[in-house]
Amino acid sequence: ALLGAALIVPSLSASAAQTACDEGEQKIRFSHVVADKGHPKGEAAAEFAARVNATFEGRYCVEVYPSSTLFSDDDVLDALVAGDVEMAAPSLSKFETYTLAFRIFDLPFLFEDIAAVERFQTSPAGEAMKSSMRDRGILGLAYWHNGMKQMSANRPLKAPEDAAGLKFRIQSSDVLDAQFRALGAEPVKLAFKDVYDALGDGRVQGQENTWTNIYTKKFYTRQDGVTETNHGIIDYLVIVSRDWWEGLPAADRAGIGQILVEVSHEYNRFSFELNELAKMRILENGGAVRRLTKGNREKWVDVLTPVWRQFENEIGASLIEAALASNR
Ligand code: LMR
Question: Which atom of ligand 1 is nearest to the CA of 208?
Fold first, then answer.
């Protein structure tokens, strides 16, 4: 009964769903960079807002800003600390300047699927990582799922050598930088909002992302095809400004926190379906999706897993072991 019908038959069309706050309500601005519909983060943020706004009518009002309409992923962390926005949910690959703790999530071919990621996130090690930016003024409250990353370019990517010499857009993560260097490609760090244009004007020839991001932001229309590599993951941390959060009356903090726990639990179950649906939509709209042969998949694994060694010391071999153990 708690599940919204909108999610069961998700709509993949874009729309601006901004909440109008009433006079006297305390605004909670929630900034993100993805589509508001047909996307695990967009749908979960909208549902979180709807529930807080119904429960705290007249007192608090969550206003969701999707698609980088308030801050881009490069600016949102500083904005949160400065008090210019209260909540955000950046991908785990975007915290480099605040903490290196999340590097583990970028190691290629480490997690087999999002269920493994969830087992790791709910382990004591994963739970502890949510507080890794506390001293810098940021608290992590919940993990939200997106899904497995796929790779695309302006030419067919079958074997890893097909990526060599191409420029690939990456999120601001040194692990992802190393990943594309291992392929002999050139990584280019760009904000999410610039990817579509950069694929069109030749700043980059390829990118990696989840089906929902590739579909909702139309990246596939500017690529030869998308190869189902499942070589990594995109997941999120819902974050708040520590000072704002701890300044809330305890009962309100508990109430809003409980809504977030419930929405996270329910909506994380849908991320896989939404990504499968987006893949289907790409095909329906004339996009090409390529499967890797078993032999080629082994080649991608062989070329990319040595990247782990470059980051093993700072991440810690035992944490990598714990992550591997979550693939059961
Ligand atoms: C990206 O920059 O590719 C993603 O992190 C965007 C997102 O938030 O899913």
Answer: 3
**Ranges of H-type helices in the chain:** 5-8, 40-55, 76-82, 114-121, 124-129, 174-182, 195-201, 211-216, 242-247, 250-268, 271-284, 294-304, 307-315, 317-325
- The one-letter code for the residue type at 89 is A
CA distance 279 to 47: 23
Select from 189, 210, 213 the residue to mutate for testing ligand 1; criterion: most ligand atoms less than 8 Å from CB: 213
Q: Among residues of the chain, what percentage have pLDDT more than 70?
A: 94
Give the mean model confidence (pLDDT) for residues 134-146.
Answer: 97
Structure-block tokens of residue 29: 């601005």
Which pair of structure tokens corresponds to residue 227?
Answer: 């190869």
Candidates 240, 244, 235, 187; CA nearest to 213 is 235
Mean of per-residue pLDDT scores for the chain: 93
In angstroms, the CA 8 to CA 22 distance is 30
**Lowest-pLDDT choice from 4-13, 167-176, 216-225:** 4-13
Per the DSSP assignment, residues forming a β-bridge with 234 are 147
Tokens describing residue 206: 């390829």
Q: What pTM did the predictor assign?
A: 0.93
What is the 8-class DSSP label of residue 292?
Answer: P
Q: How far is the CA of 33 from the centre of ligand 1 (A)?
A: 7
Q: Are strands 225-241 and 87-88 parallel, antiparallel or unpaired?
A: antiparallel
Q: Alpha carbon of 325 to those of 117, 124, 248: distances in Å?
A: 11, 14, 38
pLDDT of residue 18: 53
- ipTM for the assembly: 0.98
